[in-house]
Amino acid sequence: MLANTASAVEAARAAGATIIHAPISFAEGYGEITDQPYGILKGVVDSNAFVKGSWGADFSPEVTPQAGDIVVEGKRGLDTFASTNLDFILRSKGIKNVALGGFLTNCCVESTMRSAYEKGFNVLTLTDCVAATSMAEQDSAIAQDYPMFSRPVESTDFVASLKG
Q: Is 63 helix (H, G, I), strand (E, B) or coil?
């Protein structure tokens, strides 16, 4: 997944696409969210994950932002559109096509995919550039949910379309 993502990002960057990173991070103590989280955010708090400035909130070396990339700040939940200025960035740049990859397949990627679809963007989900916590979750999201709100494609097909 990570190698596919790095290759797709490199090819998209070389083709002149706008690369946008949307990391999730929280202040130590998680003051940005309810003091009684449940679901996936409870897991984040219980495991002390995604604390700003820590290893768990850092970029993987394979996909570290490069000069010219945009890093969206303020992502505190699953959907990147919900607590950031991503919609403003995309519209101000005249971007109509959004290709998504990342973690988790059936959580943040799917939430962002659904919002992008509802906002009228042409959404591609790069099926080999996403990962879930189990193959069952991965397979189900890609087979059942992704086709409803996006055009699921493998990264090699996406990269080929950039050259076409």
A: helix
Q: Is 156 exposed, middle or buried (0-12, 13-18, 19+ CB in 10 A)?
A: middle
Q: Is pTM beyond 0.90 here?
A: yes
Q: How would you classify the pairing of strands 97-103 and 20-21?
A: unpaired
63 sits in the region (left: phi over 0; alpha: psi -120 to 50; else beta) called alpha
**Which residue type does 102 have?**
G
| Nearest residue to 33 via CA among 49, 22, 45, 17 | 45
**In the chain, domain spans:** 2-23+59-163
Residue type, 140: S
Which two tokens mark 18? 């706008």
Listed in sequence order, the DSSP H helices in 78-154 are 86-92, 110-118, 135-140, 146-149
pLDDT one-digit tens code per residue, 48-67 = 999 999 998 999 999 999 99
Which CATH number is 2-23+59-163's, of 3.40.50.850, 2.40.50.840, 1.25.40.10, 3.30.360.10? 3.40.50.850
